[in-house]
Amino acid sequence: MPPHLVVVENTTDWHSSFPEMQIVSVKDYISQPYYFSLKNVRVINLCRSYRYLSRGYYCSLLAEARHHKIIPSVRTLRDLSSKAIYSLDTDSLDDFLHKCLGKHNGNMPTVLETYILFGFCDKSDLKKIARQIFATFSCPLMKVEFSYSGSWHISSIKPIQLNALPLDQYPLFIEALNVYTRREYDNSEKTKHTTRYDLAILYDPNEKLPPSDAETLEKFITIGNELGIDVDLIKKKDYARLAEYDALFIRETTNIEHYTYRFAKKAESENLVVIDDPDSILRCTNKVYLAELLKASGTPIPKTFILHKDNLHLLENEIPYPVVLKIPDGSFSRGVFKAENAEEVLEMTNRLFKDSDILLAQEYLYTTFDWRIGILNRKAIFACQYFMSEAHWQIVKHDKNGEFNYGNFRTFAIEDTPKKVIKTAVKAANQIGNGFYGVDLKQTDKGIVVIEINDNPNLDEGVENAVSKDKIYHTILKEFIRRIRKKQQR
């Protein structure tokens, strides 16, 4: 069995009575090269906080990028952080809970609480539901509240931290941990089957920088009808209607703190074909994760340094000025800053560390354009050069008044694009999945490097399809048809 590694906020959190295991601080796990190179390791994340962009969050995020088997996963953390998301899964658990507890009698309390530690709890009536909750939300330590109002239901599920675990739960924790490290749980999700060819495209008509313009959306509707797909444009208010469709195509800028992630999660839970799928959103919207993932796969990237308050003083030794600083989840050139010297780095990081415990620092590579290669199901479907905005070092220049300016573009046929560019882009996108991605690359004197991967790439009429014309719409819609048919055949 692969070794287990327990990551804690502080090694003093691991009580002397706990089993002897490999214990490492989250600070070391994030920054020490030794842990990056480990293979076939299982990581148990017991940090004091799992909040978004905390060190506990990054522990799970970077573990996934390093191909370590991690509990809890980033997806579990995101699901548990929002009642609106995890209620999709607790609906089915409520039925099972009611069977476990039966009808309420007058002698029972109407509210029950229990700790669930690696699927174990110390209340005999709740042992079965505890295993089910852990199978659904694989979080090591949870506190769950059940309440009765006509029937039993789960009213809250909250991760708890090891240093907050009551002393009377220590024996159960030790037993549960010993069992967990000896066996694996089956966390596979049940799926439902759908039958019709109806595609929903989620968009926001008021978005300033949408991934697709109105003309593109109209093309999808027209060509979809030709191919036998009814295409509907839906908005945020149509969340409850998702189950009516066979597939969801997200044409809004995605973010895991945004309702687009909820739509993707809901679509997946209803067994719809969905692009962007939730895992792609999770992986692509965080630049720190992407940097680790690409580095682990041997994909060429700019010299990169994961930055936190404790290692800020080392930055000058790692990357020469100017240095590019990135917040983890920026998009369309937002949240990306260039620092010319140490003073600017200090000013920028003082501001950025207020929102994120971790930042990404990269070497600045000047080029007059970036390549954007569109990848669908592991194949290139468009190739563009995006030129820097006039008198600016980025493709999009954002003014303080909220206005923005794009640079020019040049579109190429796939066969006319340098083979090395296509090969590198496909390799990078394959690390994410088989969805629809836009891989940004720079062509430098030292070779091709990948800057980032977008889970929601631009597709605007007359730009990305300037060479392929309507063929690109046919390609994307036919891929939806293929995936829908595949699901129906299961």
From TrEMBL:
One of its GO terms (molecular function) is ATP binding. Keywords: ATP-binding, Manganese, Nucleotide-binding. One of its GO terms (biological process) is SOS response. This is ATP-grasp domain-containing protein. It comes from Beggiatoa leptomitoformis. Pfam families: RimK (PF08443), RLAN (PF14401). It comes from the Bacteria. GO terms for cellular component: cytoplasm. Residues 291-485 form the ATP-grasp domain. The keyword Amino-acid biosynthesis does not apply.
